[in-house]
Amino acid sequence: MAHLPEPTPEALIHSQQLANLIQAEIENNHNWISFARYMELALYAPGLGYYSAGASKFGHSGDFVTAPEISSLFGRTLARQVSQILRMTDGDILETGAGTGALAFQLLSELAKLNSLPSHYYILEVSADLQERQRSYLQQKLPYLVDRVEWLNQLPSAFSGVILGNEVLDAMPVHLVAWRENGLYERGVTLQNNRFAWREHPLTTGRLFETVSKLIVPNGYVSEINLAAQGFIASLAQILQQGIILMIDYGFGESEYYHPQRSEGTLMCHYRHHAHAEPFYLPGLQDITAHVDFSAIALAGISNGLQLLGYTTQASFLINSGITDVLSETSPENASIYLPLANQAQKLLSPSEMGELFKVIALGKNISDRLIGFTMGDKSRLL
């Protein structure tokens, strides 16, 4: 792909090692694996996958930028919603997929100012490399609070408080399904001339078939089904005793997700701040994502004993939670600090940036008070 930056020779060797691993799996499975399995290996294969290896992923030196890297306003504002939930539950925080650790830093710093620090801030992180990066970052930025942080390799058996996930669901492996005139097909990965290629298998049974059969879409349509994300929400529901699951990601409700105009799905890859739609390009060196079907996420929660307590755009959530108050703590007269913050707020809130595409969903258990982040602009009716 000529328009993308050239990888280093070392990066190419790394990518080829991962490609060889995936090729071996395909050959050992009758020359076909589901795309979900391909995506799982490309992102999470131990020591080789995109999130498991040592290259920088987040921020301006990586492949994409998330909200906490854009501005501290994000975490500082989110802290106000988290503070409310901690007061309701007297619980802790569990962040899933903490990236660089920037959100943990912003939350803990602001919660200290709000006198709302939890006893524990747990980070569930499957990547040993990212765990070490997060630990180093927090030790450097927040040495007086890092003793409250504990890293987990698996979910605890029970939890009360706030469970957070910022851009976590979009990175979970998705199945690809094609609606054809003669039936449903799962799109998977095969080998042709020693290269990855698409191949479709008839889809007639199983959980994926049952999920897809409930959707009404036109023939010729290809889209993603994220069974892993639904299963993840179900697992969180099982451990939650009292509290809120807050998931922030880009996506839509079902009717918009499977709109006829979105006939090629939402699969997207990110490499060195370039977005493209070629998941077989340089496996291990690029992120692979899909937008989130928030209707499926809500249903997974409700089916497992949770209540849907809010669904809205990132812009509405941040405004409701007090981002303008946080911004006003910096005087406009101090232009060198205020103007960059104002520009960052624009990126977080603008419909043409992150404000409308990114959504926030709240699923809860044993919570009676209304959450401040959803007081206006709630779009739960669209799910």
TrEMBL record:
<dbReference type="GO" id="GO:0032259">
    <property type="term" value="P:methylation"/>
</dbReference>
<keyword id="KW-0808">Transferase</keyword>
<dbReference type="InterPro" id="IPR003788">
    <property type="entry name" value="NDUFAF7"/>
</dbReference>
<protein>
    <submittedName>
        <fullName>SAM-dependent MidA family methyltransferase</fullName>
    </submittedName>
</protein>
<dbReference type="InterPro" id="IPR038375">
    <property type="entry name" value="NDUFAF7_sf"/>
</dbReference>
<dbReference type="Pfam" id="PF02636">
    <property type="entry name" value="Methyltransf_28"/>
</dbReference>
<dbReference type="InterPro" id="IPR029063">
    <property type="entry name" value="SAM-dependent_MTases_sf"/>
</dbReference>
<dbReference type="GO" id="GO:0035243">
    <property type="term" value="F:protein-arginine omega-N symmetric methyltransferase activity"/>
</dbReference>
<keyword id="KW-0489">Methyltransferase</keyword>
